[in-house]
Each structure stands twice: as structure tokens, then as C-alpha cells.
Amino acid sequence: MHELSIAQNLMALCEKNARENNAKSVKKIEIKIGRLSGVEPHYLESAFSVLQPDSICKDAVLLCHLQEIVVVCNDCGAKSELSKNEFLCPKCGSAELKVIDGEDMYLMRLELGF
Fold first, then answer.
1. 42 labelled binding-site residue
2. Please, which of 27, 38, 66, 73 could form a disulfide with 89 given CB 3.0 to 4.6 Å?
3. Residue 14 annotated as binding?
């Protein structure tokens, strides 16, 4: 389960930001997880909760926002959001798509306690 190592890295990033800002705690963590990122939000939340008790994030709320796949068609130029892994342009049917969002995981917001 690679979500455990991702949770460890997320925890380390939160602790680093808290130290740099002289915070006493982390209250809320918001992340965006792309559907193509390979990260399963449920498993990440479970792994995070295992690491939480012994960290500055012990009382933090973890909010995971799932990012759909956003593409631009190289043929017609349409920007679309795909709700399933069917890589065809919804406008013209072309398979010549460029993925512009939905492949990564980002830390979007960190709420610190002082």
C-alpha cells in the first residue's frame, strides 16, 4: 500500500510548514487527488489516521477532494472533464487528447493553530 508512504510524506510536509510558521498544531489539511494519480483517498485517509496520534497533526481534519480528469482536444480545441476513463473528446470524438488536470495530488490548503 503506497498510500502509507504518501501519508508519511504529507505528514512531514505539514510538520515542516508548522515549524516554519511557529504553529503549535495543524487543524485542517485539504488535498486534491487526481483520478489518474494512483492514490486511493480511502486508503490515504486510513494511513494518515494511523500516523496522526504521534504528530503535530494529531487533531487535524484531512479533507480529500477528488479531481476529475480534465483534457484538451488536440483536434477541436475543446476543454472537457471526463467522468470515466474513456479518452475520447466528448465534442468531436477524437482520441487526440492532452490531460491537463487529474494526474497529481496537491496540498491545497493547510490551516495551522497558534
1. no
2. 73
3. no
Between the two ends of the chain, the Cα-to-Cα distance in Å is 34
SS3 53: helix
Say yes or no: domain 3-113 is CATH 3.30.2320.80: yes
CB of 90 within 8 A of CB of 77?
Answer: no
Question: What residue spans define the domains of the chain?
Answer: 3-113
Q: Is 92 annotated as a binding residue?
A: yes
Say what percent of the chain tops pLDDT 90.
94
Tell me the percentage of the chain whose pLDDT exceeds 70. 99
Give the span between the Cα atoms of 112 and 28, in whole angstroms: 7
State the average pLDDT over residues 67-95. 93
Structure confidence at residue 83 (pLDDT): 78
Cα three-residue angle 109-38-3, rounded to 5 degrees: 70
* CB contact at 8 A, 101 and 72: no
Alpha-helical segments (H) within 2-55: 3-20, 41-51
| Residue 64 is assigned to a ligand binding site | no
